Each structure stands twice: as structure tokens, then as C-alpha cells.
Fold these 2 entries.
Entry 1:
Amino acid sequence: MRFSLVILILAGFISLHSCYAPTSHQVGRKHAFPSAGKALQRCQASEALAYRLGREYKVELDIIMGVIRVESNFRDKITSHAGARGLMQVMPSTGRYFKCGVLFHAQDNVRCGVRILKKLLKRYDGNEVYALGAYNGGSGYIRKALREKMVPPNLGYAEKVLRGRSRYRREGCSGLIRRL
């Protein structure tokens, strides 16, 4: 009984994991991003980039997808009211600092966002709430919260990204495109 339960669990994990991993033709390809496509197509194109760059920089695919969903809803040519650009909504000054290339180019933008996220995860010893808070509002938010022993003022942002990550883990792009 225990053996068959383990087999079923492993089989479910393998099929679940393979169901959300991009196909081989998506991973290696430098592609034109479907800016005007449907949300599912944009999510899948983002997934292919996030998968490859997440592996390259050793950042979880799920959290990258959560950030992209919250930041841009998978739109690569979007600019925020504050001036942040692209899929991962990188500020131009941050892009210049990190030598990121063209922020409206999906691959450059996701590479830049993943590098920033990796640096913040390292800075905050893997604490995703602090790293995401710093990604969203700058490290000053987090330094102040830590100094004053308070919850970061943009905790809602981190919660939304983590909710997106969780939904992506369960349902892939089909779940992530629904309202968080």
C-alpha cells in the first residue's frame, strides 16, 4: 500500500512538473514576444524566458512568474506611472546601473529583473517578503522596516506575488492569467 502511494505521488509530481515546464522548442529560441496576443500566449512566452533565465541565475521559475504577473500582466511594452518598463517593470536608472540593455526587449528585461531579484534574495538571506518588498519599492523600504521592527509598507505586493507563485505551481499559466 505504501509503495503504491509513493509511486502515485511521484507520478503526479512528474506529470505536474512536466506539464508546466516549457517545451524544448520554447526554451532555446530567441523569439519575438507576442505583445498583442492573448494573456495565455503572453504568459507562455514569459514562461519560456523565465524558465531559461531562472535556471541560468538559479532563481525559482515560480517566483519569477509571480513577479511578471503582478508587475506587467505579461505585457512587454508597458510603462508604469513611475516609469518602470517591460515585463518585470525595471526602472530605467536601475537598468542602466545593471547594464540591462533594452528594457522593452522581453529577454533583456527578464534577464535584468531576475538578476535584481537574485541579488535581493541574497541580500536578505532568502527572505522572499523582504526581497520582493525591495524589488517593488527599493531597499530603503526594507531597511526602514527592519530598523523600526515593522512590517514593510508594501507587504501587499509581496503577498500578491507569492499568491501568483502558488497559483502558478498549482495550475501553470492557465491559472496565473486569472485575477489574483
Entry 2:
Amino acid sequence: MSSDRIEDIHSYKKIKRDIKGAKALATFAEFGSKIGLVDGEGLMKELAQLNELEEQIIEISKLPDEFNDLFSEKGWIAYESMNTTVMKVAIQLMKQGEEEKAENELLAYYTGERIKLKMIRLRNIPEFMKRHSLLQVAHEEYVNKKYITCIPLLLMIIDGVVNDIDKNKGFFTTNVDLHAWDSIAAHQNGLTKLRDIFNRGRKSTTTDEIDMPYRNGILHGRDLNYGNQKVAAKAWALMFAIQDWKIALNKGKKNPIPKEPVKSFKENWDELVQTIDSYEKNRKEREEQSQKVSKWKPREFEIEDIHKMSGDLSDCDENTPELKVLEFLQYWKKKNYGKIAMSIRKGMLNDKSISELAGEYRSKLSGYELIDYELVEIKDESPVISEVFVKAKYKVDDSEKEKKLKFRLIYEDEQGNIYMRGSKEGKWMLFDAFIYEIF
């Protein structure tokens, strides 16, 4: 059973509990510094910010409930990936009686460009990925203000995605389970409430303008004047809330986790000592990383040197983003989908095996035969991110295409932990966004 209020879900409770535990270390820090167990001054400096952090967490945890209380009846709900600043502003305006301005603030959030960026995360979810071409059409129609065609398409996508997730029922089915125990979007005041609102019966044909994506009225031809941005934006918002529900399910947040056993005094003491030891180790590592970051500068290349790398991998330095891209291009040319799967970061789909991912990339790339390629630009954006641009020529069916593809890479380990480039713990991994430039 989910909590009555979103602020009481497990994730928020755990963060608050962890902060209280960290604050308890402040009492120990003074004693630890006297006996030389810990650098008390350094620890106290870090802990001084905890009170402010605790206040911020409390404020953030209350936002989704406040937002839903004010906006859910109007067709908007809070979800994990929604911008908290937008929520704050909309809540403030609504409390001031500025209802129209509050909704305009939400509409301004769902610009064509922002939706395009949010759609990138949808690609990591198979139920959305198989509908990628339809989502692209819906986005194009939205940008061009062709809401009449955009909205029905979004409603069909939403229903189909949920049907695939549930394995039986679509979003607008009255008995589909849209809950997740530890989720904002899938709280009992979230998706289920929207489903009930958007699924209301529309028994009479009307030309009055509506401001809700009523599924029955729109798809059954009863609400004839539905083609406006407000209806379309609410459908997009629902889409992203469903995405966050699916992510929660992937993380095992559907059902409550077992209660942790009560620890003895000795267990708590041992854990406290381990925390202190871990803090000291992490503090030194942070200092070392900070020094490296402050000294880091992006590399500079002559265009001739970049072109030269395309011909021979030995012209690339080891463990560099450009080498990773060139290796990937060779795998693509040789149709080695297993190696391709090992080159691309898994992201949210870390529960899939390499063979499963290889099968997915085979289905995406098998119709695109790489003929030739050339490196044209290398950009080091940060100590952990680089972009490599490639002019690629490939065959699709019986025609040849030539495109400039952008490969974005991150330096991380197998678990997705990010490291400074060059660290022995990490390696370069590709984001998969470039695949959608190929299509």
C-alpha cells in the first residue's frame, strides 16, 4: 500500500533519515578529533551544511503533494523528472489566485525543444523505443502547432505503452494497476487520478473547446474542438510521468521492501566507525579529484591530425574517446553487434544481458551498412565528457547516405560511476543518441 502523502514515500524518508544520521556524527566529531580518530575540523566543516540541506530536502519532498493538490484536477501531476523550479513557480502563482498564469507557466515548460530533450530518455525504455517513429511524428506535429493530429497520436502511444508494460491492460482501462510503492508519478494521487479524469465519459458531441485530453471524447469523435496546446502539453506530461513510473518498476519500487532489522549498539557503533573511515577516504579522494579538475584543460587538435586518426588506430592515444569511436565504427562495419553492445552505456537498462542488447542493436543497425568514415572534430567538454564528430557514408536499402554523426561519450565504470578521464577505474562509453541520427 502506498503512503497517503508523497512526502512519506520510502525514498524521501531514507534521505531524511540519512541526513539525521550524518548530523549525529557532529557530536562524535569533536570527541574523535581529540583522540586523533578523525579530522574533526574537516568533518565539522562538511557537516555545517547539513542543516541547510535538510531544509531543502523537506521543502522538495513537500512539492509534489502541493502541486498535485492544486493541479491534478486540472490535468497536471508531479513526476520524478519534472523541473522543481517550474513546480515552485506554478504553486506560488496558484496560491496567489493567478490560475491562468500558473497554467501558462506549465505550458511554457513544454516547449518543442524541451520535449525533444526529454524524449531522449524515452529511447532507453523498450516500450517507448518501439514507438520512436510515432513519437517523432507527434513531436513534429506539436512543434508545427498541428495539435489536431498530435493529440490522438499521443493518446494511442500512451495506451499502447502501458498495455506493453502491464502485459494486459492499456492506460485507460479502469482496473490497470498504475501504482508503485516508492514513486512520485505512480503514487495513488498521480497516474491513477489522471487516468480517471482523462477517461471520463463524453456522451454528447460538442464543439466547445476542451482543455483536457479526454480519451473517449477525442478518439470517439465527440469532443470536436480539442486541438490546442493545453490539451497536447498535458498529453506529453502524462507520457513523461508514465516513463518515470516504468523507471520505478525497473528499479524494483513496485512493492515495499522488507523492514530492516533493529541493530544492536555494537552494530551501530561498528557502522559509525566504518562511516568515519569511509568519510576520511572519500575526503582525500575528493581533494585529489578536485586538484585534477582544476588543472584540467580540453585538448587541442590540428584538423590534419584528426583526419590522420581515421586511417590507423595506432595514431590514437590509448584510452581516448576518439579511439573508442573508431573501434565502434569498425564493429559497425564488421556487423559485430556484441562488441557494439559492450561499447554503449546501458543506462537504465542495466538488467539486460549483452546478448539481449546485441539483439536490439542488430535490429536497429542491420539495415544500415557502413561503407566509409572519417573523423572531423573532437571536443573535450569536461573532465568526464567528450564529443567526437564523424562523417559517415552508409548504405540504406539501395541508396547511399552521407551524414555528420555526433558521438557523445562519458568516462565511467561498469556500475555507471563517473570518473575523471584517465582514471584506472573507468573507461569511455558511448551514449546511444547517435543511432537516431543515422535513421
